[in-house]
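Work Package 3 (structural annotation) set out to generate three-dimensional models for the target panel prioritized at the project kickoff. During this period the team completed the workflow that converts sequence records into C-alpha cells, so that structures can be stored uniformly alongside our sequence database. As a representative example, we reproduce one entry of 130 residues exactly as it appears in the project archive.
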Amino acid sequence: MSQDPIADFLAAFKNGLMRNKPYIDFPASKILGDILKIMENRGFLVNFKKITDNNQGFFRIFPKYEGKKPVLRGAERVSKPSGRKYASVKDIPVVFEGYGICIMSTPRGLMDGDAAKSANCGGEVICRLW
C-alpha cells in the first residue's frame, strides 16, 4: 500500500476487471464507501458490501460486466497528494463528452460532476471514470 489509498483502489479495481474477477476485495474506508456509492448509482458496479473483521474490515465489490467486457473502461486519479486539482462550478470537467463521470469532493460531500453542477458547488476533483 502506498500513501494514496484512492489510487491503490483504482489500480486494484482495474486489475480485477482485466482478469474478469467476479468480485474484488479492498480495505474499507469512509471515502472509499462514498466513491463506491457513486459508482453503483452510475452503473459501474452491480453492488458492494462491507464485511467486518477484527481490523478495519473490507469492501467486497462486484463489478458490472456486459458479456465478458467490463462496463468501466478506464479510471484515472486526477488530484494526488503531491498536487491537488480543484475546479469551480463552471470548470467541472466533462469526461468523454458526457459518457464518463468525475468524482469530486465538495463542501456538501463526495458527489459526481453532474450533481456538483446542479448543487452549484465546486471542489477537489478526485478521479475520472469512463
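The domain at 5-70 is CATH 3.30.1370.30 (Ribosomal Protein S8; Chain: A, domain 1).
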